[in-house]
Amino acid sequence: MSTPSSQPLRAPLASLHDSPAPVVLVAMEHFVERAAMAAILRESGFAILEASSTEGLLRSVRERAVHCVLVDLELKTAAGKGALDACRELRQEHDGAPAPAIVCLSTSREPHATALEAGADSFLALPADPAVLVASVHALLRSRAAWAAPPRRDGAAP
Predict the structure, then answer these.
(1) Residue 154 covered by a domain
(2) pLDDT per residue over 82-100, tens digit each?
(3) The domain containing residue 105 runs over which residues?
(4) How many CB atoms sit inside 10 A of residue 111's CB?
(5) Is the pLDDT of residue 148 over 80?
């Protein structure tokens, strides 16, 4: 029997939200920053996966039901594939199917528009305030759940 965290990614978003804790993938090259961010989110009740490369990010998302990906824009592979390339690839793979929410992280505000155009749902400047980090992930997951909910027949919002 599979657990909620091992369900295929293309499972309906509503069923992903039925899991005990939303799964957040923290993809950052630098261990100290990644571990700190993971600890903050874990203490806030999220299940955490970690990746230190874009290959690890893509592998984790393909193998696990991930609700949200936090990816540092400085993340790269040995072949030069960057975080924005990974964002684009995730969006293409999930064309028409629920994909994890993607939050791009950067110490610079310059790539904000580029990140959003590459498929990111949100952007946070680093270092991120812990309360803002947690609130941003909660807000993204709430908006995803509301968007995935079928409209009510009485015309009221879901």
Answers:
(1) no
(2) 888 888 888 777 665 656 7
(3) 8-145
(4) 17
(5) no
- Going edge to edge, which strands form the sheet with 122-125? 47-51, 23-27, 68-72, 101-106, 122-125
Domain containing residue 135: CATH number: 3.40.50.2300
Burial of 29 (0-12, 13-18, 19+ CB in 10 A): middle
Domain count, the chain: 1
Q: Is residue 136 part of a domain?
A: yes
Closest CA to 29 of 49, 52, 51, 48: 52
pLDDT tens-digit readout, 29-53 = 889 999 999 999 999 999 999 999 8
For residues 66 and 24, the answer to whether their CB atoms sit within 8 Å is: yes
In 3D space, the residue among 133, 129, 66, 130 whose CA is nearest the CA of residue 100 turns out to be 66
Length of the chain: 158
Token representation of residue 125 = 């400047």
Is 3 within a domain? no
Q: Give 13's pLDDT tier (boundaries 50, 70, 90).
A: very low
